[in-house]
Amino acid sequence: MIGVFDSGFGGLTVLKSIVQELPEYDYLYLGDNARVPYGGRSERIVYGFTRQAVDFLFKQGCHLIVIACNTASARALRRIQQEYLPKTHPERRVLGIVRPSVEEVAEGTTSNRVGLLATEMVVASGAYIREINKLNLSIDIFQQACPLLVPIIEAGEQDWEGTEMIVKRYLRELFDQNEGIDTLLLACTHYPILYQIFERHTPSNVTILEQGPIVAKKLKDYLLRHPEIERRLTKSATRVFLTTDISERFDRIARIFYGESIQSKLVSLEPL
Ligand code: DGL
Question: Residues lining ligand 1, judged by CB closer than 6 Å?
């Protein structure tokens, strides 16, 4: 199976694109809704939670895991890949969302100025700046943390008029940093839900990128380049949804993120 992990519902926007691109595989989604949001938590906690989730998905039989959460990818992925995997599961793989997104913006920008909207933790980690510098030193990333957006979306309040005001303010703060930004990356699983609001308040010459389609395309490339991993993945087109909090609420809100109704099962991860 391919495991897809997020701190909550948001990763379903990524899973949706992956399933569209690669429908034949079996997918196991895990949302840690009991402990969402990760976006304002310390590195130690985000690493601990993410490692537990990875361990859980491995035990369920996932050979490949996509961490769809930006916060977990920025704060925990490197350590999982460098320390945890080689010791525990050297033949399995855990991929994140930062690297594919950075490759895509690097190909797309012509002004070499990229805007990034994300959680506080992602901005503080500097993970996007570090990754872009590995690819192309002449590209500048301007970051804006948007701490109010995940709680608003988690509460199902995306249509509230205040949301639009808050988005406008974050965008103004971002474009005040640099007017030459030509590519805007929505670097948080939740933000595609507000895509139309972002679009209304972003200059028309700016390309807005969502991560779902980017990750799906890059995962397809990855599987072509790594037949030894691809061979281990089962292909019965099943989708299983697991959540660490009340599954009825998960199912209701998940519809907004996944685009179709789902039935989830409740599981628990040990307290840290
Ligand atoms: N999934 C998180 C991300 O993409 C957003 C929600 C959270 O803060 O946990 O950064």
Answer: 6-8, 10, 36-39, 69-71, 119, 122, 150, 188-190
